[in-house]
Write a sequence for this structure.
């Protein structure tokens, strides 16, 4: 399991929710500030996560990576952007040498070197995004802008919950979100609205972000492909073991408009925090307890945690009371 | 074939119980691949009643069907297409029409006999047919139990089949 050990790097999902308020779906996109647009983050779990990501890609290539043959140029554009971001933020960990189109990318954390001819897919064994994606702990999706919609044309995914590149390949933004009870506090359908918002506001050099969250019961991988395996384990949670078994699973999401292809690159940084670790930040514990106590049924059903939300809330309630008792 | 093209599936907006004439078009093209539906075709022609130019093309066997691309490619803008066929033939005529540039709004499809419905197993990625009323099915490739969901993929040409463990099935 890959729990976040550096809480300063953990994207706590409810920062922007007013104290005492509950959680409902909304257009919660926020524009990234000018000097915080870099999505490359190296956490203490970097090496463990990369190892697991590469295992998953190797064991289940068709589950984890999907693309169309016509996407090569768009993929190279992403390679260039990610390398620039990595070198810019962590020059001690990443370097690139460019001799014309002959590029050499160094990853000093893993002591690895990738050499290729930029733009020439025959110079590498994997597809460009699949290759560069294996150096970063995030998932990557390219949504291509065609006739007023966004279509999923490339995806490398190992961590995000309920996300199947294989199933979602070729789908529009709206089709992808069809299973989500995606309505606002007042019941307004959100998918079309959010899609139009993305198309209009995610512009070159102006990336946006939002945070998605879920709970998972003793399981890293929660995709539809393996529902038969993890589905039943959700019933094992009790108020006694929820602290260890249940984790807050958070996806910090980034949206970049690619200047050449006009596609939107969707980046997901997935992090985990065990319920018991919420005590490390008592304000997080209190707010998470309050929010989880008031989740609409369709949302809990969709997110897949209805079998263990009750024991989890019970666990948090006991923890909150214990801490209040200790501090009084 | 462009991946974002619509495909014919059991809930396709183009499938009709009965053809209806749209008077605002320049031409009506009728492709009839099912002789049993001659009455429906005659009714359509009566309804057109000479108001709009129409062309009736009748296919009686496979070899003729292979000309369908050619015929569809030659059509002018503003042509409305009426397809009368059994499921498999309708699927290929529909795909050829989309390829030739027809939009779903320009097509009506009358299926003779049963519409087919397919389920895509998310465990082993195998596509199989399922009866219209079925909500659960066993994958005939990997034997897993599948709950048939309401979401359809053009890319996979079937409805989502969620693998589940029947020993732990819940009622909700
Ligand atoms: C453009 C890139 C995006 C892609 C590729 C994407 C993809 C997905 C996928 C695959 C799912 C899971 C669907 C399933 O269960 O089958 C999902 C869920 C969801 N998406 Fe998106 N999404 C994108 C952007 C957004 C944006 C901008 C928002 C909101 C402002 C959003 C809101 C949601 C919500 C609320 C859920 C339900 C998640 C939960 O409650 O756990 N998505 N998305
Ligand atoms: Zn199967």
């Amino acid at each position: 399991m890959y729990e976040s050990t550096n809480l300063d790097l953990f994207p706590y999902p409810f920062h922007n929710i007013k104290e005492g308020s509950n959680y409902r779906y909304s257009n919660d996109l926020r524009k990234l500030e000018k000097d915080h647009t870099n999505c490359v983050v190296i956490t203490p779990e970097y090496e463990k996560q990369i190892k697991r990501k590469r295992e998953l890609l190797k064991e289940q290539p068709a589950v984890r990576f999907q693309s169309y043959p016509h996407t090569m140029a768009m993929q190279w554009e992403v390679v260039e952007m990610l390398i620039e971001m990595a070198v810019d933020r962590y020059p001690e960990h990443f370097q690139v040498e460019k001799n014309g189109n002959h590029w050499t990318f160094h990853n000093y954390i893993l002591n690895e070197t990738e050499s290729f001819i930029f733009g020439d897919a025959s110079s590498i064994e994997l597809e460009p995004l699949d290759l560069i994606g294996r150096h970063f702990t995030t998932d990557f999706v390219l949504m291509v802008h065609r006739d007023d919609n966004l279509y999923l044309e490339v995806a490398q995914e190992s961590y995000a919950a309920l996300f199947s590149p294989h199933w979602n390949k070729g789908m529009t933004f709206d089709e992808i979100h069809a299973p989500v009870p995606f309505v606002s506090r007042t019941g307004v359908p959100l998918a079309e609205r959010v899609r139009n918002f993305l198309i209009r506001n995610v512009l070159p050099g102006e990336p946006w972000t939002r945070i998605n969250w879920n709970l998972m019961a003793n399981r890293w991988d929660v995709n539809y492909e393996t529902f038969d395996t993890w589905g039943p384990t959700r019933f094992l949670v009790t108020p006694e073991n929820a602290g260890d078994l249940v984790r807050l699973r958070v996806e910090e999401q980034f949206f970049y408009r690619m200047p050449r292809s006009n596609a939107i690159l969707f980046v997901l940084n997935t992090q985990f925090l065990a319920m018991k670790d919420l005590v490390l930040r008592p304000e997080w514990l209190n707010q998470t307890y309050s929010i989880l106590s008031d989740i609409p049924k369709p949302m809990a059903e969709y997110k897949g945690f209805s079998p263990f939300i009750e024991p989890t809330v019970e666990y948090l309630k006991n923890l909150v009371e214990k801490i209040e008792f200790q501090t009084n | 074939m462009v991946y974002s093209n619509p495909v014919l599936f059991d809930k396709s907006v183009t499938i009709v119980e009965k053809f209806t004439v749209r008077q605002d078009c320049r031409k009506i093209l009728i492709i009839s691949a099912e002789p049993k539906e001659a009455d429906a075709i005659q009714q359509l022609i009566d309804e057109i009643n000479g108001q709009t130019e129409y062309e009736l093309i009748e296919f009686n066997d496979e070899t003729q069907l292979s000309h369908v691309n050619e015929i569809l490619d030659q059509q002018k803008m503003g042509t409305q297409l009426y397809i009368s066929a059994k499921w498999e033939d309708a699927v290929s005529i529909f795909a050829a029409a989309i390829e030739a540039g027809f939009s779903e709004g320009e097509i009506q499809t009358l299926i003779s006999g049963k519409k087919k419905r397919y389920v895509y197993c998310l465990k082993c990625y195998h596509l199989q047919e399922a009866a219209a009323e079925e909500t659960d099915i066993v994958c005939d490739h990997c034997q897993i139990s599948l709950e048939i969901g309401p979401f359809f993929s053009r890319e996979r040409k079937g409805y989502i089949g969620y693998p589940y463990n029947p020993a732990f099935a819940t009622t909700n």
